[in-house]
Amino acid sequence: MTVKDFNEILDFAVAREQEAVRFYRDLQQEAKFQSQLDMLKDLEAMEMGHIVVIENIRQKGVSEADIPKVPNLQISEYISADVDNLDLTYQNILIKAMKREENSFKLYSEMSAKFPDSELSTLFRKLAADEAKHKLLFEKLYDDWISAGN
Fold this sequence. Notes:
The protein is mostly helical.
């Protein structure tokens, strides 16, 4: 893998995270309650943090040791809601977030399989693992919320 290829992939990943920042920022305009607004601001900040992680990969590179094993609760895979038409309840914000992370995970996983170059595959698997961690966070929040009887 060339440095140019590596940077182009990271530029793509940063652009996806910037899109997520805009997504949560735009949703803030629809928030009806301060608690919704606060959560959406937290999600925006989390996505901005993802950009920092990607930029650290750009500086330091990535290796197999950097790829964590992330459990999958598979909650988002069983939710079939049309996320574009959900209102902004706490539950629906979590569903939107889970689905975004699930889609990013799938994209990077598929990209890792399509590129036989081991360095590219490792990079995409690292990006997929990071998205899986984010998805797990939202799935745990969702599970806790449902378990509390909501």
